[in-house]
Amino acid sequence: MMEASLSGITANATDKWLLVLPPEGAARNVGEKAWEALGELLPAGNRKLFDTKSYLDAFDRLLKNPADDMVVDLTNQALVVQCLDFGATHVLVMALSPVTRFTADLLRRRGMETIHWFIEDFREAKYWREVLPAYSRFLAIQRGPVEKACADAGVPFGYLPTAAILKPRASVKTWSERSGGIAFIGFPSKYRVEVLEALAREGLPLKVAGLGWEKYRGPLEANLTGRGWFGPEEAFKLLENSRIGLHLPSEDPGPDRGNSHVSPRVFDILAAGCLLLSEEAPLIAETLRGCVIGEFRGPAGAVHAARSALAEGFGEEILAANRERVLRDHSFARRMADLLLPAA
Fold first, then answer.
1. Distance CA 248, CA 243 (A)
2. What angle do CA 28, 30, 34 make, to 5 degrees?
3. Which of 89, 158, 227, 272: CA 20 to 30 A from 149?
């Protein structure tokens, strides 16, 4: 017997999926969207959430002198019990969840398919090399060294990008209805500041928001529209009123462009009906094949590309087609449906 899911894709009705949610950060936000999508694709009896934050906080309160290792160990013990009690067949561990290699290996040896979705940059969150061999499958938002390490360890690899985080809207403003120019949402870094200050020096209309900008002092202060946490509603309003959504990696990609990953923000920008203007990255172009986007290299390239797009305008039908494709092909429902599809 097969259970219907999305657009004719089916998942085995006997499968029982347990999702492990990390305690904080962007990985938690992605995990919450993945869990929400699983709720649309699987019956309640076939899915279970293990929220590591709840367990970490509870054990931290219970212990008189909690040590980090002890709290993590107790959380892992609770995870094993939950998996066995639920009868999980698949355990999806989101990036940065405090699941030890021993626990992942134990669950795999108990017959469960253990899957790690690594949505971090492999150059920043380096724990992946240690835990990778314990999993049945390893999914990542990059290829390169991660894919090679999987091949070396005999662990099946899958490229699985994230998806649009912001809630989809039935309609958005057209290009001509938007009063804003360029919008950037993200935390500040040396490279991002360099590109954004170049745009501001040229007098291009620019709005900048995101966590971390409250500490910034410099020529971009007049362009800041959100200091501190910038929620999803605020993000959508800013994007919907802007003609261009800017994507910048945190570091200058230089010769390492092949390892640049695809941020959820690129999907949000297109879903909000903006023209996506992105630092050139092969994986972004591959993932968004069929969409029309603008690319550049470095601060000078960003200035030229943005000025040209704002001066020449952009076709409404192209932006609408971009938006339709993203909402159809780059949602968390689609990502989870692809994951649930039984292997051929």
1. 16
2. 110
3. 89
Q: Please check the confidence at residue 234 and state whether its pLDDT lies above 80.
A: yes
- The long-range contacts involving 76-83, CB below 8 angstroms and separated by at least 24 positions, are 76/100, 76/102, 76/103, 78/50, 79/20, 79/50, 79/52, 79/55, 79/103, 80/106, 80/107, 82/18, 82/48, 82/50, 83/18, 83/50, 83/107, 83/110, 83/112
CA 123 centroid distance within chain: 16
Contact (CB, 8 A) for 199 and 175: no
CA distance 203 to 23: 41
Pairing state between β 157-159 and 113-118: unpaired
147 phi/psi in degrees, rounded to 5: -65, -40
Least confident of 55-69, 163-177, 273-287: 55-69
**DSSP notation for 297-333:** -HHHHHHHHHHHHHHH---HHHHHHHHHHHHHHSSHH
Q: Indicate the pairing of strand 47-51 with strand 17-21.
A: parallel
pTM recorded for the entire structure: 0.90
Name the amino acid, one letter, at 79. L
Residue 336 CA to residue 316 CA, distance in Å, equals 30
Q: Are 171 and 236 in contact (CB under 8 A)?
A: no
Rounded Cα distance between 339 and 19, Å, is 12
> Are 164 and 331 a contacting pair, CB within 8 Å?
yes
DSSP string, 259-278: G----HHHHHHHHTTPEEEE
